[in-house]
Amino acid sequence: MVTDENSRKDIEQEQRRLLEILDSAKDLIALVDKECRLLYLNDAGRKMLEIGQDETLDEIRFDRFYDDEAAAEVTHCELPEADRAGHADSETRLRSKSGREIAVSQVIAAHRDGRGDVTHYSVIARDLREHKKLLEHYLLSDKVFTFTAEAIMITDSRNRIVSVNQAFSRMTGYTLEDAKGRDPVFLSAGNLDNNFYAEMWQSIDTTGHWEGELWDRRKDGTFYPKWLSINAVTEAGSDEVTHYIGIFSDITLRKQQEDHIRHLAFHDPLTGLPNRSLFQDRLRHALAESRRDMLPVALMLLDLDHFKYVNDTLGHYMGDRLLKEISLRLMRSVRESDTVARLGGDEFVIILNCVHDLRDVVHVVDKITSDLARPIRINSHQFRVAASLGIAMYPDDATTIDDLMRCADTAMYHAKGRGRANYQFFTPRMNEAAHERVMIEEHLRRGLDQHEFELFYQPKISLDPYRLVGCEALLRWNHPDWGMVLPTRFIPVAEESGLILPLGEWVIGEACRQARKWLEDGLCMQIAVNLSGRQFRDSNLVLKIRQALEGGDGISRWIELEITESTLIEGASHAAQTLHDLHLLSLPLAVDDFGTGYSSLSYLKTFAIDTLKIDKSFVDGIDNDPNDATIIRAVISLAHQLGIKVVAEGVEDAGQLQFLQDQRCDMIQGYYFSEPLPADEFEVYAQREFPAAFSSSYN
Ligand SMILES: Nc1nc2c(ncn2[C@@H]2O[C@H](COP(=O)(O)O[C@H]3[C@@H](O)[C@H](n4cnc5c(=O)[nH]c(N)nc54)O[C@@H]3COP(=O)(O)O)[C@@H](O)[C@H]2O)c(=O)[nH]1
């Protein structure tokens, strides 16, 4: 009895153990009878089919956990197959109590009694959802690996290549067969030393990661830069590295773009020459080199003469093409080690390194000026370019970049002042002149506030009939300490500083006031007012003149505007409109300094010009330079044919007067008749010499 009891207990214990094992399984395990009724279902099965632990399995048919199609498959195919072969394997779908579908792989095994008859079936079903997820994840990763645009290589723990993707082969030219088993160092361009790789591996060993730029060589021998990132892969839960994944991309294009952006930052986009930033950097290097080698550096500032004229008359496209050609010529004139830079507009700067002798500098300047002077043909236009150059020497003239630039600028300013198309080496005296300019500017500002200016008037005499027809208003500055200052000393400074605008406005207002007074006194004649280039370009000029004229009725025809030939031509782009507006105000127009500026005479027919003033330099030459006499003859004839009157200025003697009279010059201005006079003295002069002038009426 005891033995039976013991063996029963043993069996029960054994059964419990078996059930524990079945319940610990992750797969569904069920036992069904021949009618498909559930006899047993382990814990995983209950969970999968949503049958509670307390729920009894009595009378539950297992086939209700399939949909109709799957149930039919089980009943008609798999159970008979199990009967026949012992088991049937399939992939099917189970359906939980709540209707959730579960993809499973299933094995149905038939169990038999001692006689060999099937008594029941066991069903083992494995949930495939996790497996499918893993599979999908793997397939996706594989696709990413295969088709990604970045090259990927996987190496083993000894850094031998085990796998590469398509992008790797595309980028390097090596197939997986070429690369397999090799150390990736075979890809290298060979330009890096051992230290580089030592640091790289130290980073990977300590942080598990490295990334950086390096150069590789393709299978075809060409080189390219790449950005590589390497990650070490470790076994889950361990520090042991199993693989290294290297991902890289060809950064040739990016580097080209970076180079392009860097180039743009340091070069002038039009000419490709270094810009101001790069120039300053080069000059800094040149000065450092000069200190080391004890050889001077020459800094040349070059400004094209009358370049604005090209832009204004032919447009910026032509101007740009001309600048490009000039840049090429400048570069050709210097050594490769020298620098030609464009600072903007028509301003260039040249650094000559290691100057052994000042004669070398002069030689380069000669080369530059003669090269620039050669005609430049662009489309149907032919240009002859001249430039003004200012030269400063390091270390003699200045020792800092700013001071050196200032010296070169001062020298260039002097070159311009000397009639352009020449060069000037900086001298300390130029600095004195520069200081004087600054001082005059300060005094000019104060002089304007303190009303220190006055207009003098120089008569213009008509020869046939002989009478006073007008005068030129000439500005004088009564400085409290310096006495009477002539315009040649302060007009250029006023022009440069912009003070000519308020000063010129005062001149126009004062000339209008004087014209009104003289007209009221019966002195009817034109007063000519000089307009500087800066004034002429002032967009408010017409408005200012209109305001000045408004004080008196109909005086505009008594105010003549004198504009120099160069001002007219240099401002050609807007000159037509300005002159048209002035013409509408009925203001007569005279061209001053005629014959000194341009060879083009076409503007004579373009603009409504009333008078030409023959420059004093031609009048000076009447007696001793036959060319001057010829030019005067030609100018008078040309003007008369165009219906324009002629004034000769600077007439000092009777011989000049006679010649001009013979050529039928319309008017004379000069010391021969009178120097410029203050208004009251002018009245006395007019009363004395031309009393008839007062008898006329202007209405
Ligand atoms: N924008 C302005 N410019 C002005 C104004 N006032 C004068 N100026 C310009 O300054 C330059 C010098 O002028 P100035 O010292 O007054 O000299 C004028 C005459 O005095 C001088 N002249 C006239 N006749 C003779 C002569 O027989 N001999 C001789 N040596 N000099 C003579 O010529 C100057 C007049 O020149 P121009 O104007 O070209 O007719 C001068 O360029 C003035 O234009 C002003 O208000 N605004």
Automatic annotation (TrEMBL):
Segments forming domain PAS: 14-69, 152-186
GGDEF domain location: 295-428
PROSITE patterns in alphabetical order: EAL, GGDEF, PAC, PAS
Domain PAC stretches: 88-140, 210-263
InterPro entries: Biofilm_reg_signaling (IPR052155), Diguanyl_cyclase/Pdiesterase (IPR012226), EAL_dom (IPR001633), EAL_sf (IPR035919), GGDEF_dom (IPR000160), Nucleotide_cyclase (IPR029787), PAC (IPR001610), PAS (IPR000014)
SMART domains: EAL, GGDEF, PAC, PAS
Record Gene3D superfamilies: 3.30.70.270, EAL domain, PAS domain
Catalytic activity: 3',3'-c-di-GMP + H2O = 5'-phosphoguanylyl(3'->5')guanosine + H(+)
Highest taxon in the source lineage: Bacteria
NCBIfam families: GGDEF, sensory_box
Designated name of the protein: Diguanylate cyclase
Naturally occurring in which organism (per UniProt): Novimethylophilus kurashikiensis
